[in-house]
Write a structure and sequence with these properties.
- This protein is an alpha+beta fold.
- It has a single domain (3-130), classed as Roll (Thiol Ester Dehydrase, Chain A), CATH 3.10.129.10.
- 28% of the residues lie in helices and 43% in strands.
- Strand 4 and strand 5 (107-116) form a beta hairpin.
- The radius of gyration is 14 Å and the shape is globular.
């Protein structure tokens, strides 16, 4: 994908993909096979115990991984995702880095990591079905 394609992908994600936008997911970087997203923690992200809800982490990581794959020209659908929650969020912003790790003709694998400052707080791996056509 060209630089213009990356910009169009960014604009599409930021304006047309409703759920991550509703959650407050922001795009920092998109390049083929790699993305960096962030989320500024707000009251709406908290669970009943006063911690950031695990679904927030999952949304951030799933979105970042999918866009990393789309940026290499793939149409994908998540088929499986495993999230490891490693620690609590303490800062006002979490950052997610995602990357393509393996690809076959029908399947792609990706990994995402969320950091709170320098601290790794969540790790996900996912498989994606590559949609032909």
């Amino acid at each position: 994908m060209s630089g213009d394609d990356m910009q169009r992908l960014r604009e599409f994600f930021e304006t047309s993909v409703a759920f991550p936008r509703l959650a407050g997911v922001e795009v920092d970087e998109i390049e083929p096979g790699r993305t960096v997203f962030h989320l500024d923690v707000r009251d709406q992200h908290m669970n009943g115990g006063g911690a950031v809800h695990g679904g927030v982490h999952a949304t951030l990581m799933d979105s970042a991984m999918a866009v990393a794959l789309i940026a290499v020209g793939l149409r994908v659908s998540t088929t499986q995702m495993t999230v490891n929650y490693l620690g609590p969020v303490t800062g006002p912003r979490i950052t997610c880095t995602a990357q393509l790790t393996h690809r076959t003709r029908r399947t792609a694998l990706a990994e995402a990591r969320i950091h709170d400052g320098d601290t790794l707080i969540a790790l996900a791996t996912a498989s994606f079905h590559i949609i032909e056509g």
